[in-house]
Amino acid sequence: MRTCRIAPSILSADFARLGEEVRAVTEAGADWIHFDVMDNHYVPNLTVGPQVLKAIRPWTTAPIDVHLMVEPVDALVPAFIKAGADIITFHCEASRHIDRTLQLIRDGGAKAGLVFNPATPLSYLDYVLDRVDVVLLMSVNPGFGGQSFISSTLEKAARVKEMLDRYEAESGRRIALEIDGGIKPENIAAAAAAGVDTFVAGSAVFGAGHIDGYRDVIARMRAA
Ligand code: DX5
Ligand code: ZN
Would you say the ipTM is above 0.95? Predict the structure, then answer.
């Protein structure tokens, strides 16, 4: 069977009840918890750091997927690993030494991922695939939840999927292909058809209001 992971983004959760929200989406069927970190420097918005990650860690058994929208990256990596990150992804443009940052994350025992904005070229992957566990394609410009899906990401996803399939045939190792931004039950099938296996959804999941709504949206995404 094909891999299909749904990763609700806490950006659209009720921050006053974050632990309960994380537990609710886990019970509603989330595969990963997507944790958006913004610094008002790399992106024009500000969210949360390692202390909040540490606080929500006991509320879920699902892997926590930390999406760093920060610059610089390296100095923050150890704190997020210590706080319980399972996966850490960062943006190509935000690290001066991508190879080093990937290695830093993996040396700390987490999985490492590289994030591509809608206009970021895929050539950043050329010499680092063997150090990458996740490729995350942004289908919106990073910084805010609730934006509309940028459809050129589908063609980009299909190109990455080809690269990852070729790499798997050579190495026997599967790299995850994740998409983030504007994903909903209505467009998730197109992303899956392009080869995406991991789907971040913030407003679509948390906009459903409560645990029954979360369960219903996650089930509809998986079915689609
Ligand atoms: C955007 C964040 C996304 C965002 C997704 O910068 O990285 O994870 O929360 O939210 P939706 O699903 O509402 O586009
Ligand atoms: Zn994100």
Answer: yes
